[in-house]
Design goal:
It contains three helices and no strands. The chain is mainly alpha-helical. The chain has a domain at 36-92.
């Protein structure tokens, strides 16, 4: 009975060892990781830290996008307001220039009329 159990254990051990060798030759990196657990833990830690940084950067980018999107109506309103006030100021300047020229024209007319009235007054005197 001992002999049978020893042969059975040896057979099982040989079969498992062959399968392990076959799997290890097909999956080199996984085999290396299992053979070097401290290096694997270190690499896993570095990968997790890099992944966490990537997730944080992505989160900040998404947050900035939504903030800019939320601020867009305000920025558009400011731009429209500035343009409308600039247009209004231009129109006011045009109105002032037009009014000024009308006043100057009227003053010139009054000056000539004054001259005419003074000449007529001198003729009467």
């Amino acid at each position: 009975m001992d002999n049978l159990s020893d042969r059975l254990l040896n057979s099982l051990q040989t079969t498992l060892a062959e399968r392990w060798q076959s799997w290890a030759s097909e999956h080199g990196f996984a085999s290396w990781c299992l053979s070097h657990p401290f290096w694997t833990l270190g690499l896993l830690f570095v990968v997790l830290v890099l992944f966490a940084g990537l997730v944080q950067a992505l989160g900040r980018a998404i947050e900035q996008f939504w903030l800019k999107l939320a601020q867009l109506p305000i920025l558009l309103f400011r731009l429209a307001w500035r343009r409308s006030t600039a247009l209004t100021m231009d129109l006011l300047q045009e109105e002032k220039a037009k009014k000024r020229s009308e006043i100057l024209t009227r003053l010139a007319e009054l000056r000539t009329e004054e001259q005419q009235l003074l000449e007529e007054l001198q003729r009467w005197l």
